[in-house]
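Discussion board: Methods & Data

I've been asked by a reviewer to show the raw model output for two of the constructs in my manuscript, not just the figures. I'm not sure how much to include, so I'm pasting the format here to get opinions. Each protein appears as its amino acid sequence followed by a line of discrete structure tokens. Is this the kind of thing reviewers expect to see in a supplement, or should I convert it first? Here is construct A:
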Amino acid sequence: MDHVNIQDVPTAQMLNIAHRSSTRYAEELIRAEILRRLRLLPGPKIRLTNTYDASSPSLRFQFITEYVLREGVIKLDPATTVGCQKCSPHMGRDIGCEYTKKCDCLEYAAVDENRLTTEENTIYKYIKKHGGDTIGLPKKFPYYAEGTKRAKTGCLVPFYLKSRNPIYECNDNCKCGRDCRNKNVQFGRRIELEIFKTSSRGWGEYFIVLSLI
């Protein structure tokens, strides 16, 4: 039995064989495995598109459907979450938390300065200078509600989309109901997704949305 020194691997012969060998079969197996994993994920269909070559995303890629908690991080017990108690499913346009002055979940959300009264504006200026909470002041909702452009329903409004302000959602213990417009991310992906290969920037993805306008 021949012995090979690990320091000599790969040998010139190995490199020559590898250079001349086709990777098509391996690429087909990887593509099949990626598609199998995508089919197992919950929610609407996820498509995989590559019009440039025969490659697929790495098998090491992990598509997650919930938070992955690392060592030392403990998941919050839902029983300890209070939620907004002054809201109801029938506020405003029957879309849950319509009146942001009442919603406790939005206590730390960005203040909607365009809706401040003269008195509220004075209070807000004092808070910004000296500190304090902004509960009772109108807050900016993070998502579009149903309106003239239905394709935008549930999408982030420009203020949050273009800033680093945190988004505060209502939770299961809130009294605003399941259809509150301040509940979105927590329900997971509800539309189709396409993972696609780009010409020079690797793999990307986008949601497939049918415009109803």
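Construct B, same format:
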Amino acid sequence: MHPEPTSSIPLKRLLAGLEGCRLQGDENLAVTGVAYHSGEVIPGGVFVALKGVRTDGRRFVAEAIANGAAAIVSEQELEVPAGLTNVRVNQARLALAHISAAFYGHPSRELVLVGITGTNGKTSTSYLLEAILSNAGRQVGVLGTVNYRALAETWPAPVTTPESLDLQRLLRAMRSRGVSHVVMEVSSHALDLRRVDRTAFDVGVFTNLSQDHLDYHRNLDDYFAAKARLFLELLANGSGAPGLAVLNLDDPRGEELRAQVRVPCLTYGCHPKSQVRPLSHRFHPQGIEARLASPAGEVMIDSRLVGPFNLANILAAAATALGLGLSPQEVSRGIAALSGVPGRLERFGPAGGPGVFVDYAHTPDALAQALGALQQLDFARIITVFGCGGDRDRKKRPLMGTAAALSHLVVVTSDNPRGEEPLAIIREIEPGLAAAGLARISGAAAGKGERGYLLIPDRREAIRLAISLARPGDAVLVAGKGHENYQIWGSERRHFDDREEVTLGLKECHG
């Protein structure tokens, strides 16, 4: 799914409107392609030198030229061979977004594009909205954490939100295949790194904000500022008119955004001032029933998703769909059609045995919400297996422990250790468990049903142990990785799928 334009485009057309660029060379150069990896440069192409966390694109200019680059775009002045065009810009990432959108003919202007941002709920909300739109006859594409998909095709998702060049290429390919609506998860990294600049969003959705990614952002305010860019700077549709902001009033940051945005707003949540809100609702083991108020009339909900946090996701998707002009009946039918979301409280286990759930929860708030949902389903005990990623926000590790202590038994294990020792990560989780009143116990004590926590660094062993300790009527939550099918050790990515391990564990322990 990587079509290139069939004809070259003059460089001056790609640069038109990009403020602060200084060109040395041929502005009428016929550009055949755009690349930010030197190995992907084609003869006659433009190479944009980006400065990354670990390397600087300027180091690869010579390779790009050897591969046929006819123009180099960078923030610094470079010495290039005679005959090559050199373009200096103030921000290389913005320049890449600008050039990429122009090179692919601004595909977002031909699509109805919804961007969903927030700490938690982006993926589930995108699946719900996809179901609503598809069942209403729209041709839908999705760019998100689980995968990228359009109509009947699916591609792996290396990152939640693609780099700007890859994004514009994907949007053009989707439009060429007949897609009319695209639902896109927009990460804070993508907003901060300008991957979605020069992209026309018809709707921006804010789900919530809680602690995450503080290994990248300096603090929560910076994290929020990155998210807010979608609503304060980028929200405009293909005709240049303001887009619609769909905001969660149950989150204080949603209220903050509502006070700042200068575009039309539609609010949702249980807050009494929310425009889309539940008039009544009931949580049960098979899902959620609710009756929603909205400016378009009442919306009846019968969903197979479980738990209060999924009611919030349903409200977000319903508000967005109504904001796009769909009817309450279309919203109801679409939500009822979605059976589940991969790795989001995905249930396994035989009838009469323990319920085992795999969930992506990897923030304190998400873990607490997942456990809160299971507590409402009247399980006798909840056993939680979780860990924290290495080389990531260390401050959230004890907070994850505190959230996990809502369980009867916690098995602390490895997530993606990356460059850290698994046991060192686990040791930084323990204070949160202790602060919540949970003590470390022996395996024998756990086998007798005592409350507490265990340390099992091997994730496969931890999952097997938790399932073996679960009795009929108990729930096991395996949290942190959800749909992911790998573990990262050092720089190596090894196959590991919680869902596969759970299936094998259930077979071994419960037939």
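Answer (T.O., handling editor elsewhere):
This is acceptable in a supplement if you add a one-line summary per construct. For B, something like: The chain has three domains: 9-103, 107-337, 346-510.
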